[in-house]
Amino acid sequence: MKELIESWIESGEIQIVEREVDPRFECAAVIARSQHESDRPILFRNIKGSTLPVASNLFGSRQRLSHYLGAEEGNFCQRWATLMKNPVQPVAILPEAEAEFRAARLDELPQLTYHGKDAAP
Q1: What pLDDT shows up at residue 50?
Q2: Model pTM score
Q3: How far out from the chain centre does Cα 40 lie?
Q4: Per residue in 32-77, pLDDT tens?
Q5: CA neighbours within 13 Å on the CB side: how many for 45?
Q6: Is residue 56 a contact partner of residue 41, using CB atoms and an 8 Å limit?
Q7: Domain boundaries, the chain
């Protein structure tokens, strides 16, 4: 996923929000407005109260979703069925790649609130 987002940054395909965004309603509002105007993915680099970024709308277009799955144009359903019958096996992380990963706890992830009655914060 990291490489994919980096490629979108280089190509300008992803919208980037640098300013601080509150995870309680504000982030959801920005996402909703962005989705209304375009199908581009969006990356929030500065979520209030978190050191982690948030990415949204990654599967916001049929073209992007088909590309992720390796489906030819007009062949999405067949490709999906093939993938479900033959899932990709997990790959062990090489020791040199482990340095890129850090332990994280679920409570460190930004918790977005979309609606006033959401069970989250």
Answers
A1: 92
A2: 0.80
A3: 11
A4: 999 999 999 999 999 999 999 999 999 888 888 898 899 998 899 9
A5: 9
A6: yes
A7: 2-85
